[in-house]
Design a protein that fits this description.
The chain is of the alpha+beta class. The protein is built from 24 helices and 22 strands. The chain starts with a helix and ends in a 20-residue tail after the last strand.
Amino acid sequence: MVHTEIIQRTLRVPLPAAGPGDGTAAVRRLDAALLSLGFALTADLRTHLEGLAPDAVLRTAAPLLAAVRELVGAAAEHNVYFTDFPENVPDTVDFWLECLVSAVTDPAHRDAVVSDPDGLDLLSLPAYGRLRHTYAELAAVRDAFVAGAEDRWTLLHLGGTLEEETRRLYTDLAGSTVPLADADRDLLGRLAAACPDHEPPAIPVRENRAVVNAARVRAGLSPVLDTVTDVLRLAQALSGGDPTLVEPKRLRSFTRRERRLLLTALDGVVAADPGKLADVGRRVQGWKRLGEGLHPHEYPALGHARDVFAVARGDKRVRTLAARVEAAFGAGDVPAAVHLLAGAPGTLVRSLDRIMVAGGPAVTGLLVEHLNAVGHRVAGRVLASAREQLANRSLPGSVRLFANETARGWTVADTRPPLPEADTAAVTAALDALIARRLPDVDLLLVDPAVRGVAVPRSGRGTSKGLGVLPRGSVTAVEGERLRFFVHWADGPDTTTDLDLSVMLLGADFAPVGQVSWTNLQSTGVVHSGDLVEAPAPGGATEMIDLEPAALDPKVRYVVPQVLVYSGDRFTFLPEAFFGYLSLDTVQQGMPFEPRTVRVRSDLEGESRVLVPLAFAKGEDGTWSARWTHLFLAADEQFNRVEETGVPGSLLARGVLSRRYLTVGDLVDLMAERGVRVREAGPLTQEEAEGLRVGYVGTELPEGLPEGVEAITLPALASLLPDTGPEPEPVS
């Protein structure tokens, strides 16, 4: 499984240990299979494979093809209800009437339909929502696929051995400067267990450190801890719980060795800095539960550890920084609050808006002074968030967009008092200077234009793995003359699940002007493939919506897809579930799902039942772009429909689409202002690069970069804005 994930996450192919040979013919067959999926081998990888024995090429080809088929969504058979989709899809009411007539004229079903005391259930009609043809029968009536010049081509690169690639991925995930998505954090735990003797150079994010520490403890090694909350996180990780502490789980019983290890580590942290006892008040209940499992009274020599639980019980009082800060704000002494917050730089930056509102212009100089003095200790993602927040304070009529740790999103009107422009500009300049100092120190930066619109990553939470998945707020141009959204899922062993794919059509003011869903199969320029109400193994089910932007009603300015659980399991509990879209030209025919036209495929994960994955916007020049949202809506346990979720979905879309996000392009511009020569990515010879420190930033790694170029691609974009070290735990 790790082999598969290395390929999918890095696009590098781990190579088997094999002797030399002539694998040319086998590589040609592999090439043909990959090209049909929209993938291609780089010259280095092709040359290496051609020099191996044919059986070694085949051993590489089988897991490689399986990995990329899964990555692009081609491992599933995408059978749709209407075989001619997007052509000849009937009117919704006519179709329902046809299903009803079919049922009442069939003696086997007529009595059940007519005599049902609860009335007619559309989903119970035998012809509704269940495929009436096989995938082979669908393929037999489709025209051949017409390849296009704009079809997606993704390069696969030469990797090292499986062991080398495993360690490399482990180091990359452990060294992430932003919190990881749940799937990535689970993978980090497996990699840490597989590499017990490998010590990552840095683990900046606390919850990631907890996962690695849990693997170290299981391997008989000591954990690396420097705050009391690190111990609480480690206890959760050892219990298979939530190291983020957002939804902590019941702690398991610890062995005597583990109890002593955790208490000894806790004792050492407090002994080194008794002030860290102030962190205990933030999670009193968590500490009480941990104390019940660790039995600190059995270790009288570990007095500092026992103090932690005394604070949690209220037997010992510690005045926190937060209490002193609140007292200063309450007394109207904003400069005193700033001086106190300078001791917790991350909290200072998170409090900028409050300080500027409460203190006004009189405090701006002091605030900038402290930012310049301590800002280098603040996590890069915190600086990015603050910079972005200030950029959105002056937007007229804006709404505030919120998202919690589980990506549940909501909006409220922005009623905050405005900030003086001069003060905002001064603080923004200080933040820009802090950010600029962290950016790569190169002489020449090659930039893929497609990466300029990618939002600077600040968290992987709520962002699913897949192909072409970008951070919330990222913008990409829409290519092709048609878009085709798809959702595929498979039922669990004991539950039938009905997912529904819908789109909201919004006007210039984000007001709804229409929708397409199972209750309305067609609108101008938009067609639904038909509702499926079950996804039995092995084929599962796929719903699609085909959209031709040029044919849309002129009033439509925004298109917002939604994936809804109508009944059955939530996304997290489905064996397989993913969303994405294809980009096609009008002349391209083929099957409803053609792998090389897939632009995005994103796993469906999360506890919610309604997802707004992205939104599409029409620009003033008539071109369309996609912006990632990665947000869930509040939802009912069942019977969710776009008619009810459309308005909150449109508000979320407004919150994301009207927000100014800090992008990679902004960071590139800061580098250019600092004197770095920036040019669009293209051929660069070894001679041109000689004597220069060259960097590359793009969504994918291209072929032909000279040796020594520092390349940063999508999986590592957060490293553009690194941390100087682990961010201190926020103090209560």
